[in-house]
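Final paragraph of the annual report: two paired records, presented back to back.
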Amino acid sequence: MIELTYFENLSPQVISTLIVIGVLALVFILVGIKVKKLDPHKTPKGFILLCLLLVEMFNKLARGYVKEKPFRFFAPYLFTIIVFLALANTISLFGLTPPLSNLGVALSFSILTFIVIKIAEFKYIGVIKKIDGLLGPVKPIAFLMLPINLIGEISTPFSMGLRLFVNVMGGTVIAAMVYTIFHWTAGIFAGVLLHAVFDIFFGLIQAFVFFMLSTVSISMATDA
């Protein structure tokens, strides 16, 4: 007998990630269809207006750091990152496990951001100029500067991923400790407050911090 066990080994964090991706994909498709049908002579209303205001706020913020040409190329990635992290870091409010409480999921963002930064550097700075920067301004000690600069190149995006994991996981552990210590009645009231702080406030803050670090890194990488 054939047994279908495709999802047996998926962790709760990965399942939450797939749910977030599915929800965002559906929302983006529906909003895109609605926006295409908008009458340019009428003011949009409701959820569509909120989405347009959110995109406009994002554009103004990111354009303050990234030049216009690189911005048009990397804006979809940056916007997707901040929207995904904002939802992923607050998804525990709906009874799901935060995706970023899994180190592998958190580090995957580091790897993706690292690749995007390298693409930006090679596209707008060039391979030769990048290698020259890694060797340092004083060529006689290039053999010392090269490994130091390489460590710095790799450590920055990975530290961003570890920041996401530690903050989300820390909030989950503290909330679990409160439930355990105060048991049911007091634990419920304290848990509501902790969820408001860690899941909403700190979760959105961490999404914004990762977005800003990615934006600044791309800005530096495209500043030829």
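The closing record of the year follows.
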Amino acid sequence: MSAATGSGATTHIWRRTFDDSEEQAGCVESLFPQRYFQVGAGRFSGEMTSINLDGVRLFRERVNRRLIQEGMMNVANISWIQGRTGLFRCNGIGLEPEGVMFYGERAEFEVVLDACEIIGVAIAPEALTSHSEGAAATSASVSGGLRFVSRVLAAPLCRAVSRALLTADVSGSVQMPYWQTLRQEILSLALPITNLPEAADLGRSRQTHARVVRSAKRAINSDLTHALGISELCRVIGVSRRNLFYAFDAVLGLSPHQYLQTVRLHAARHALKHLKADKGRISDLAWDCGFSKPSQFAADYKRRFGELPSETTPCPPS
């Protein structure tokens, strides 16, 4: 949201609450195409707040259930967990409670997190490049994969982003010319982080686990109608049952059974939310999503999302 407020002041703040994880994932589609899968049981509640500063976006995201977040970055992203107490695993790597992450542009990400608050900044490559040239600094390298950043190095940026979000909460707007000063400050503080070298090789076993999980996910998502069992999944991707379970636990903290059920339940919810299924024929929907017993599907759906399939409200027309 960006709206003029008069007297040279402009609001660059966008804030929205959500009751569905898929809808929350879609609200930042322009920054990083992504999907969310709710793993934790119960009704979802989330919130997204962002401050748009012309190629620099400060954001705060809150979720109340364990999620899998996966996608591809189109921007440089520096983020951290505020007051973390639960699980947080990024690309199969556990993040220290005070840890800060930096994703380069075109980096794939797969995050598993418990209920938490994520704070960060997303920077368009052109904004960072323009600033680095203007500051007579080395050209910012914003491509590549995940890096973990020293809290000491990231502390000034963390403070500036958190302070700006707090100011936005109190005032409800970002005044001109303050937002221009804030933008320059954020870019200057982010520059040393974005110039960090690529992370060292993460090890053969971690790469193997990631590869197994990617192959399994492709097989699972290729045809949800087919009730693919674990034994058949192992045969399709060419791994043992033991290695499959090790890989899923290492990367996602889930068993293959739990992931398979999660994907199927979300496929059913997507169909119901987007009017791609007839609520009067829940048994057909269950079958289409790989559930052979409609009554068990309804029970699993309610346990996961806090409502029966027949109670799911369709999304309003866009």
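The chain has two domains: 3-194, 204-311. This concludes the annual technical report; the extension proposal builds directly on these records.
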